[in-house]
């Protein structure tokens, strides 16, 4: 790995490493230095043509590079793969034009990854992989460890199954960094269908569509997990679960925004996040805003033994044509701490149609009969306006809703400190700004400060 890539790797993994530290999955060593274990590096295979081809003309296409990595042998002008390879893709638009499906060797259609590999572009804005709606882009096979960095996955389509942009099989481990998954279509999981362990950092999943089933942006399957860090899931559509959906899976949202996703079926629920079948959802230092569902749970819907953990979350400006514009649960557990549930809308129970297990210091604007608040009532505010600003750039890598004026959420958090589900302190807000400002942290994903963030505007 070059020094440039090592630096970028270190910067990209700091938020994830911090999360792992918080949850006790990584511990500080006794030595003054520490390392992150990675799979051994293999060949660096550089793509040098934007054409989608599999021939013997002496150059190296993206498809040929994938074949070289899979086979650990030279294909056309590509360097032979050797273990866990890196495929470098320069700036350009790479259209997958060799049609065909029903095979898993990257000969036609999508690019099947059968060996551990890193796929690295120039930037997401410059390196664009486009399937022109003929097939999905990538298929990560079972037990494969794959990393995608600095690429855009666009125009994938898989109408017979799922994962318009990306599909992962069971026991795979996938990391997506600084990338875009946009404008893909599938039966389920318009952007991504995940059956393994996936982490997405500093990336955007947007304008994807699930045409027949759930998960317009992402669907994660039974026993699978997905972690979003400093990322955005927005403007996706699904029959249900417009943004994120899971059945008996795990979704962890950290310092991220789930916004403006929509369900298309009149009987659908869970516009932002949908969790059924004993799923586990954690929303930490994150915002769920502007999502819509016709039936209920415009922001979040949980059913059938699922567990929702809201820690310093802001659930606002979501809507439904039914009940529970912000939150709707049925036979599910909702744990809520230092969080805001407000400014949501619907004909009945606009903020909440759920039984909430309060862990203290929450702001729930509309307290209706269907919104039952049990548990710790200390510091719980109801029937008050949180004075939230619009969803916008307030600094950091994702959009947030600021606390403005004399918001009662300011300094309304737990005097002992804001914490995550593992009772570890949250020392920054969603934007990465320090918290608390003053003696007590604020309720929600945003920590107010005495200074005002003004976006930099450069006039040419």
Commentary on this structure:
The protein has a 22-stranded parallel β-sheet that branches. Residues 1-39 have low confidence and may be disordered. It is built from two helices and 43 strands. The longest helix is centred in the N-terminal third of the chain and has 20 residues, at 3-22. By secondary structure, the chain is mainly beta.
Main features:
disordered N terminus; 2 helices; 43 strands; 460 residues; mainly beta
Instruction: Give the helix level as a range of percent.
Output: under 10%
Overall, the morphology is elongated
Distance between the termini: 38 Å
Q: Please, what is the average pLDDT?
A: 90
Residue share in β-strands: 35-45%
Low-confidence stretches: 1-39
**H/I helix tally:** 2
Rg of Cα set? 22 Å
Number of strands: 43
Describe the largest sheet: 22 strands, parallel
Structural classification:
mainly beta
SSE layout and pairing:
Elements: H1 3-22, E1 41-46, H2 62-71, E2 84-88, E3 92-95, E4 111-113, E5 117-120, E6 127-130, E7 138-140, E8 145-149, E9 152-154, E10 157-162, E11 166-168, E12 173-177, E13 180-182, E14 185-188, E15 192-194, E16 197-201, E17 204-206, E18 209-214, E19 218-220, E20 225-229, E21 232-234, E22 237-240, E23 244-247, E24 250-254, E25 257-259, E26 262-263, E27 273-276, E28 280-284, E29 287-289, E30 292-293, E31 300-303, E32 307-311, E33 314-316, E34 319-320, E35 327-330, E36 333-337, E37 340-342, E38 352-359, E39 363-364, E40 371-376, E41 381-382, E42 388-392, E43 400-403
Parallel strand pairs: 1-2, 2-5, 3-6, 4-7, 5-8, 6-9, 7-11, 8-12, 9-13, 10-14, 11-15, 12-16, 13-17, 14-18, 15-19, 16-20, 17-21, 18-22, 19-23, 20-24, 21-25, 22-26, 23-27, 24-28, 25-29, 27-31, 28-32, 29-33, 30-34, 31-35, 32-36, 33-37, 35-38, 36-38, 37-39, 38-40, 39-41
Antiparallel strand pairs: 42-43
């Amino acid at each position: 790995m070059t020094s440039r890539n090592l630096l970028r790797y270190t910067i990209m993994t700091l938020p994830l490493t911090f999360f792992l530290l918080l949850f006790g999955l990584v511990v500080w060593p006794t030595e003054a230095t520490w390392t992150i274990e990675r799979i051994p590096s293999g060949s660096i295979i550089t793509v040098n043509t934007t054409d989608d081809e599999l021939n013997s003309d002496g150059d190296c296409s993206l498809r040929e590079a994938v074949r070289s990595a899979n086979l650990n042998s030279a294909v056309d002008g590509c360097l032979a793969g050797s273990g866990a390879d890196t495929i470098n893709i320069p700036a350009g638009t790479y259209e997958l034009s060799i049609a065909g499906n029903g095979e898993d060797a990257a000969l036609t259609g999508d690019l099947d990854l059968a060996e551990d590999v890193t796929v690295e572009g120039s930037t997401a804005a410059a390196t664009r992989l486009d399937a022109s709606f003929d097939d999905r882009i990538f298929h990560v096979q079972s037990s494969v460890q794959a990393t995608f960095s600095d690429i855009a996955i666009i125009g994938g389509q898989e109408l017979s199954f799922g994962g318009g942009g990306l599909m992962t099989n069971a026991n795979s481990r996938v990391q997506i960094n600084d990338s875009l998954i946009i404008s893909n279509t599938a039966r389920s999981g318009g952007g991504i269908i995940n059956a393994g362990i996936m982490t997405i950092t500093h990336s955007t999943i947007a304008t994807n569509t699930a045409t027949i089933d759930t998960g317009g942006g992402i669907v994660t399957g039974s026993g699978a997990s997905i972690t979003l860090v400093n990322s955005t899931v927005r403007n996706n559509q699904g029959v249900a679960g417009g943004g994120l959906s899971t059945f008996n899976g795990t979704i962890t949202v950290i310092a991220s925004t789930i916004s403006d996703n929509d369900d298309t079926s009149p009987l659908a629920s869970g516009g932002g996040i949908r969790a059924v079948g004993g799923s586990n959802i954690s929303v930490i230092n994150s915002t769920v805003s502007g999502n819509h569902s016709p039936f209920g749970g415009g922001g979040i819907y949980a059913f059938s033994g699922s567990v929702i953990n809201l820690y310093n979350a802001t659930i606002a400006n979501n809507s439904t044509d039914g009940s529970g514009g912000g939150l709707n649960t049925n036979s599910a557990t909702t744990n809520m701490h230092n969080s805001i549930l407000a400014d949501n809308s619907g004909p009945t129970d606009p903020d909440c149609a759920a039984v909430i297990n309060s862990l203290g210091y929450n702001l729930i604007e509309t307290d209706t009969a269907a919104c039952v608040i049990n548990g710790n009532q200390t510091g719980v505010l109801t029937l008050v306006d949180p004075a939230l600003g619009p969803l916008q750039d307030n600094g950091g890598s994702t959009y947030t809703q600021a606390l403005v004026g004399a918001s009662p959420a300011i300094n309304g958090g737990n005097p002992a400190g804001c914490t995550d589900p593992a009772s570890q302190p949250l020392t920054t807000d969603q934007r990465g700004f320090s918290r608390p400002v003053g003696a007590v942290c604020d309720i929600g994903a945003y920590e107010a400060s005495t200074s005002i963030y003004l976006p930099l505007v450069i006039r040419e």
